[in-house]
Amino acid sequence: MCVMDAAARQAEVDGLLRRYPHLRSAPGGQGSWPGHQGASAGDGTPDGRAGGTRPTHPALRGCEEVRWGDIPGCPSDVPAVLHGLFDPAAAPDAARVLTNVVVAGVFRLGEAMPDALPFVLRLAVDPGAPARARLLDLVLVAAELCRPVDPGNPREVLLLGHEADRPERARCRAVFREEAALVRALLDDPTAWEPADDEDRAVLQELVGGAPAGRG
């Protein structure tokens, strides 16, 4: 992954919305997202009113309330990117863009990751999510990069930075604990994993109180 500054992240989001302009109306406007079934008009709108507005998928309820634009380096249109994850055509592109927004580099989480992680987890547990494999990868990146760094290990500190300089790590660990039920459901889902994923699963298990998993 390349390192992106705020302007590059905004350009990524703007490009996605040019390619899939209907995402700009999520959750406003008429109708529902592609493939949506059974939600009533007005569900999840900011003021709770019915009357022809696009409903918000249950997994994304609350995403409009996050002040994404106030997070350093984060575009304000993240909700549109999240809604793109339900569009079979847009989902792979939306997952790539979201990753570029919430991961700051090979060894560093972005400041928006703690706010995005609850929604990513809720989407990743859905076997029908169009971009599920990419979302699982993003969950595993967050899990690996948020683990505490041993201050006595110079190599870890050099690669990952001191805990005090990376507050997003502790915030992500808190999200994993708060969403432990989702993480355990994901761990128990045989459709989500391959046999070679045991090490990745051990990292997630560690974060929600399972057997410890050491860094490689």
Low-confidence stretches: 28-53, 212-216
| Main pleated sheet | 2 strands, antiparallel
Beta-strand fraction estimate: under 5%
Name the helix and strand elements from N-terminus to C-terminus, one letter apiece. HHHEEHHHHHH
Task: Characterize the structure shown.
- By secondary structure, the chain is mostly helical.
- 44% of the residues lie in helices and 2% in strands.
- It contains 9 helices and 2 strands.
- The chain has helices at 6-19, 78-84, 91-102, 113-124, 132-145, 154-160, 167-178, 180-187, 198-207, and strands at 103-105, 108-109.
- It has a two-stranded antiparallel ribbon.
- Strand 1 and strand 2 (108-109) form a beta hairpin.
- Helix 2 packs antiparallel against helix 3 (91-102), helix 4 (113-124) packs across helix 5 (132-145) and helix 8 packs antiparallel against helix 9.
- It is globular and about 50 Å long.
- The two termini are 20 Å apart.
